[in-house]
Amino acid sequence: MGLERKPTSISLLQAAASVGQTSLMRAYERAFERFSISVGQMLLTHEDLKSRSRFINARNTLLSLIDLGIIPIINENDTVATAEITLSDNDNLAAQILNLCAADLLMILTDIEGLYDKDPRLSADAKIIPLIKNINKSIKDSAGGASGPIGKGGMRSKVEAAEMAAVMGVPTIIAGGKVPDAITRFFAGEPIGTFFLPKAEGLTSRKHWIAYTLKAKGSITVDTGAVVALSKGGKSLLPKGIVGLSGDFYTGDSISVMGPDGAEFARGLVNYSAKELARIKGLDTREIEGILGFKYSDEVIHRDNLVLF
Asked: Which is it for the CA torsion 243, 247, 251, 254, positive or negative?
């Protein structure tokens, strides 16, 4: 395109994506031709995954390609993506695809051979962490957050993708993409890269979709009693436990549920808009209809539409 560096304007970035998509698919076709394997392209945006009907349609397309023995090459549709519908980076996209096709493993091949205990660019004694049983704050901090001049993400986004996979009950391997035969060596049992163990009990596909695919449109703050009822008692969220809210959300939107300490501990699909909730928060369910003139439900968020972190 005659550009010396990555453009910054949206129109040029999307034009570059348009040119890049054809070159990328040509490269994949040539690579797989040697093995007489066909490839197909799937371009997605967050909008395709946010809508449950479009999510299921994308899943059916993906599974049909796999059933036909065709390797799906999946990318974000950068030619049309905007801030509202972007998937942020390919690590996040890969984690979303796990839910789309019920995958058994997430393998991320990158320019670093795994997760190090410290930045290998700054410390000569940095060592790869071979196994991670639980992703906590210190693990995320060791991943840093920098990305290169061309790509997006960085090691931190890969660790966050591994966390999303773990919650779904899927293990992740982060390994070096330039390591010879990295994939076959991993499946042969060699200690390649960093392996992340999954949670013992993963979320269902739908609850993973609620927690990690949908973007929260706002938040509500609840009292200690509501925190206990939701996290310990498996209850639905009622208006009585709500003490505050923020954002402009509507019925069916995903919202964050915050405890008294301001930390998000759950996320779910809300049955009332922000304006409606502002009028009924803190009230008993029997008072809803008298205040609003109608009642969608006793629950602000039903437990079937609530995910605890």
From this structure: negative
Local structure of 191: helix, strand or coil: coil
Token representation of residue 121: 């660019």
Find out whether 271 and 232 touch, Cβ atoms under 8 Å. Answer: no
1-87 and 216-308, same CATH topology: no
Q: Which CATH class is domain 103-204?
A: alpha beta
Determine how β-strand 194-196 pairs with β-strand 242-247. unpaired
pLDDT (tens digit, 9 = 90+) per residue, 131-167? 999 888 778 777 775 454 444 558 888 999 999 899 8
The HSE-up count of residue 158 (CA atoms within 13 Å, CB side) is 29
Q: How far apart are CA 100 and CA 157, in angstroms?
A: 19
CA distance 209 to 74: 18
Residue 206 CB: number of other CB atoms within 10 A?
15
Angle at 85 between CA 97 and CA 278, to 5 degrees: 110
Region 207-233: mean pLDDT is 90
The pLDDT value recorded for residue 145 is: 58
pTM of the predicted protein model: 0.70
Domain 216-308: give its CATH code. 2.30.130.10
| Residue 265 banded pLDDT, cuts 50, 70, 90 | very high
The band of 82, judged by pLDDT with boundaries at 50, 70 and 90, is low
Instruction: From 163, 35, 64, select the one nearest 108 (Cα to Cα).
Output: 163
Fold of 1-87: Carbamate kinase (3.40.1160)
Domain ranges of the chain: 1-87, 103-204, 216-308
* Beta bridge partners of residue 246, listed in sequence order: 219
Q: Beta-carbon neighbour count of residue 151 at 10 Å? A: 13
